[in-house]
Amino acid sequence: MSMPKRVAAIDVSHWHSAYDAAYLRILGDLGCDIVGVSDRDELIAQDRAERFDSTPFTDYRRMIETTRPEFVVALGRHCDMPETFRFLVDAGVPFIMEKPWGTDPDTVADLARLAAEKGAWVSVPFMVRYSFWAVTVKQMIAAGEFGRISHIVYRGIRPTMRRYVEWDSPWMAEKSQAGGGALLNLGGHGFDIARFVTGEEPEVVSAIVSRQVHGAEVEDYAFATMRTPSGIVIHNEVGYTMPTWPSNQTDGEQKVAGERLLLRQVPGGLQILAPGREETILQPQDWVAGYPRAVREALEAYDRGDPPPIPASECARAVRLIFEAYRAAGVR
Q1: pLDDT of 1
Q2: Domain boundaries, the chain
Q3: How far is Cα 77 from Cα 276, in angstroms, rounded to an integer?
Q4: Is 332 a residue whose pLDDT tops 80?
Q5: Residue 203 needs a FRET pair 20 to 30 A away by CA distance; which of 65, 91, 178, 227 works?
Q6: Which pLDDT score is estimated for 2?
Q7: 234 DSSP β-pair partners
Q8: What are phi and psi of 7, to 5 degrees?
């Protein structure tokens, strides 16, 4: 396994720097030298530097100039992401950037076009693509094993918005900074996975959002329905309403219902239900999924000279669907 060793991280007050995805831990586990971490909050930059054996900066531009990293993990407030994106493209630094890259679809589409025009190496870590469920479903759909598919379900209900406050990202409750709530932050995974497993370009046919639980500026629950050109209905349900915090649990479901069989994710693997058939496919013990796989795939692809595993255009398409859902819900 070969990959860039000198890596830097931008805007590490984003919760994914040390929690949930925990990019800094992943980089350390991969044997990378984290040459710099930046954040406008000096105390947070110092904290992350101490915890992950790095050097703190309050200006990511100075960090890039000083440390000359081979690769960058870019995080930050959603409203700040376009500026960071453009800087890294202009500087010629390869990077992965946490979604959604902005707070409106036109800006994100412009960023994707910029990356293409400049030949920039940038990838988006849509980590659900690396799940055993998604990879298996994509293969089974391609092989025609489901027959005619009725519907696909993706549900990801995460804990209270309080976790963003405790994880140094209180801006997630501010619409001007986050751009939106659960639909923008979590919904991208469902929209992306719909395109990934079916190979089709779905359209949003209905959506609803709610602020019922937290009463914040941004929604804490959203449900969107899509339909693909071949007629597959896809349900994308996301929220911040799992009432288990501080236990960081998810109410999740991934399922495909087809003419010949139903396949759903269950603990430890996948369950297949069909006439006269009920079986469980165990996930291989050495299966690497989620963010660790997304980061590793990106670093290895860049080192090989391959294109980004999930290019900028994929983020733009997912964000377009997100804002189609907002419009369908009557909030944009």
Answers
A1: 66
A2: 6-127+292-310, 130-286+319-329
A3: 51
A4: no
A5: 178
A6: 86
A7: 152, 226
A8: -125, 145
Q: Quote the pLDDT of residue 276.
A: 95
Return the amino acid letter for 202. P
Phi, psi of 313 (to 5 degrees): -60, -30
60-83 average pLDDT score: 98
The confidence band for 74, taking pLDDT boundaries of 50, 70 and 90, is very high
Q: How far is CA 55 from CA 61, 66, 216, 286, 295, in A?
A: 14, 11, 35, 33, 21
Rounded Cα gap, residues 204 and 320, in angstroms: 10
Whether domain 130-286+319-329 has CATH 1.10.10.60: the reply is no
DSSP 12-39: TTSGGGTSTT-HHHHHHHTT-EEEEEE-
- pLDDT of 317 strictly over 90: yes
Is residue 219 within 8 Å of 179, Cβ to Cβ? Answer: no
3-state secondary structure of 103: coil
Per-residue pLDDT, averaged over 218-227, amounts to 98
Cα-Cα-Cα-Cα dihedral sign, residues 50, 55, 58, 59: negative
Q: Give the span between the Cα atoms of 252 and 225, in whole angstroms.
A: 17
The CATH H-level (homologous superfamily) assignment of domain 6-127+292-310 is: NAD(P)-binding Rossmann-like Domain (3.40.50.720)
Mean pLDDT of the chain: 97
Q: Tell me, what's the pLDDT at 212? A: 97
Per-residue exposure over 169-187, b if at least 16 CB sit within 10 Å of its own CB, e if not: bebbbebebbbbbbbbbbb
Per CATH, 6-127+292-310 and 130-286+319-329 having the same topology is answered no
Reading across the β-sheet that carries 203-210, which strands appear in turn? 203-210, 221-227, 233-242, 149-159, 251-258, 262-266, 269-274, 277-282
Q: What does the pLDDT read at residue 204? A: 98
